[in-house]
Amino acid sequence: MSRVLFMGIFVALTITANAQDDIPKDSLTMEWKSMFRNLPEVMIKGSRPIVKVERGLLLYNMPLLLKQLPADNAYEALTRIPGVSDATGNISFLGNEVTLIVNGQATTLTQEQLTERLKAMPATQLAKAEVMLSAPVRYHVRGMAINIVTKDYAGTNQLSGQVIGGMKQNKYANEFGNLYLSLQRDKFGLDAQYKYVNGNSYGKSSRIANHPLGNNRVYYNDETGQKSFGITHDYRLGMNYAFGKNHRLDVAYTGQWDKTNSNTRTTGSSISGMHRDSHEYLHNVDVNYSLPFGLTLNGSYTYYRTPQQQALDGTMHTDESMPETERNLTSGSEQTINKWMFTADQTHSLTQGWGLSYGVKGQFTSNKSYQTTIDKDGSVLPDGTSSVDLNERIWNIYAGFSKQINKAISLEASVAAEQYHSPIWDKWRVYPTLNALWNVNDNHLLNLSFSSNSVFPSYWSTMSNVLYSSTYTEIHGNPNLKPFSYYNVNLMWQIKRRYTLMAFASLKPDYSVQLPYQPTDRMAVILKETNFNYENSFGLQASAIFSAGKWLDGNVYAVGIYKHSKSDHFFDMSFNRKKLTVALGGTASIKLCHTQDLRLILNPFFQSKAIQGVYDVSPIFRMNAKLQWTSHDGRWGLRLNGNNIFNYKYDTRSVQGNQDYRMKINYSWASVTFAVIYKFGGYKEKSIKKVDTSRMGH
Fold first, then answer.
1. pLDDT tens digits for range 105-130
2. Segment holding 118, helix H or strand E
């Protein structure tokens, strides 16, 4: 349930936090929702391009990139793309969240569930990554996206796989294991993966407030630590059959079973304990059928259920003049979602450089959720009890064209019309996209892109309920929450196929995010998602690669973003805030030994002071490091990873109007991971007669 943070980070307090790469999916008392915004660049070495530009997308040659900046799994491999970061556990890029796609196939899986699939997939399975500033409408996503394309072994005979096992130590320890298997027998292919995590994790946060109670100020402080024990099973089985060229059937099942128990202890002005038990159950089936005349049919079904129980027992006492506040509450909740989707897409390659595409998508969701809260006497608490039983329907039709005007200029444009229907909203919206490419000469290339989208609130955020996450903190739903739109424009200039400059703008009318508010009539901080008038961002990005002989490879990037956020109705106050933020980051791979494949990989990240709504976000510095050894035959590997090695805590403060609320949080405690990797198998290409090309090319 967590999102990404950066460039305008927002901090959100919720009850659940997603697991990191090798941590069980925890239910931390607080979840920090935030937005990391990074940018893409171009990376070239010698005459072999790692990336090229095609009709508005950056096409990365992943095997070539990973030779310079190695990675063990597909998710980690994405972070090797210059400017792409997962500083908070999710991929972000160019000032916005990025939608991940695998092999261009639509699915009802969430981004978090796709992320788990990529973390279990070996990086060696990747063929390329398409980083799209404006995703083509045929992918059924909008805005910025990365399409991860895996290797196609059809027509070969091979068996390969990867096994990983290890331990992760933060304040506590957990163990993990990962198995991936790929089998190809001529036209039939099978892949299977399984990921297991078992153990403890830890998170910590603190709050300092001068609460505006009536005409006075009441000082408040607390410190919260949470230990969570969890066990996670993620598994997938995929099968495919290639009938012929561009004629293929793919079927895959994905499952997930998680159990988490967490205990939270708060001390200071409030003293409380909270225990929480939660489960997650997921079943998903995806079917994709591609025909040789350009028609692709896709179907997807997901069943998701998450029951949980929570008990809070605590008191708050700020000073002698204030009465003691007591909360002894027990709550139970459950969300059950059934989601179906089908798509049909047709493409045509016409004469004189023209291309035509059109298609339709239907998506139907059934959501049944409830929450019940009772006090110590067994009485139902009305504001903590609610339920929803709603059906959501989305119909989308689109059409687009592409045109190669001449050798230097190409154009791709599309428009989609979408109806979104639910008991809350019934709206038609139109979404245009545009990509225009001008290959000026061998040294200069320009690309202009435009995209638009709408973001609808989560089911829980529109419920009229209150969730008590501590004696002082309340999480409120907002039935009046509206969807928001955004419009992105990007102009990219590639120079000598080695450097990239990019200017971008992102306009988000009615933008919404969860922010804190201190009421003057009682001692509580309310976390609630509300709509702004708008949030607009404008920025510049530059990137480059560097190398030093055979021992050092890497990339660096710099981003500057000017953000303007305005809200006339944030509870009983307003804000109009502007801020310029700078971020620097990159990846460096240092080869430590000439006779062994021993490398040190560093991922530093820095961001200057930023804003998110009423929040001021202090400067951020994080460092991840990885020491890895790989055997000469590439089969065995040892890994020693350090995540957030300086144990940085995010520091935010709201001092707008009469507010004075500060929060520090470390959802990703400094950790060290040791892992052993074994790779097996491989495929051999069919023996064919080679064509003599000794006098061809240059």
1. 989 888 888 888 898 899 999 999 99
2. helix 111-119
